[in-house]
Amino acid sequence: MIKHIIFDCFGTLIDTGNNSIKAVEQILFNVGANVDAKEFYEDWKANKRQKMNTSVFLNEKALFEVSLAETFTKYGITADASKEVKPMIRSLFADRFVFSDVHEALAKLAEKNVDFAIGSITDTEPLLYYLELNQLSFSHIYTSEDMQVYKPNIKFYDTILQRSGWLAEECLFVGDSYIDDVLGPQNIGMKTVLLNRKALYKSTELTPQPDFVIHSLLELLKVI
Fold first, then answer.
1. Deepest of 42, 89, 112, 212, by most Cβ within 10 A of its Cβ?
2. How far is CA 36 from CA 14, 61, 72, 211, in A?
């Protein structure tokens, strides 16, 4: 029986929009680089992702700077990453709002007497900022910065269970990333819901399968 729902935040509850791309465009303009912003951002994001599970934990702000320096080098850009990263850091506090189905879904789910939590790979301060901005209230909030570990490391999910006192088999993890929000939680025995808003995943091609695939948070009402 599901008693607890753990939500990913960005891309699941809050729409990240195109703030990151805008930040990259500003950075490339500032350094005078004639580079495709989307291509640069994908390389930067991949580099940042590789560094998330190294032996020494770095918070998201530090990861952005370190990975930007290496991405600059890849593209032959000679610039001070610690200075030029600022547009991306500012973007962490840009206007980002909940998807249109979020408030209604959470209100209806609350009637089912389940606990809500957020498990996000962000820094704590930006997450709290967006929760307040969007009038979202969660009694259980877990960030990578606070727990000193990123998804899909099993320690991320285990730490949530240890701190909450919840049992894995009573938890449902809901998110938009197959690796972070399906494979990771399944490794510790949680049920999983893949929120496939933009149809980025073909469910028949996913192995192992999520327990459920939905396209709107309102569909979660049928799962609980």
1. 212
2. 26, 23, 13, 38
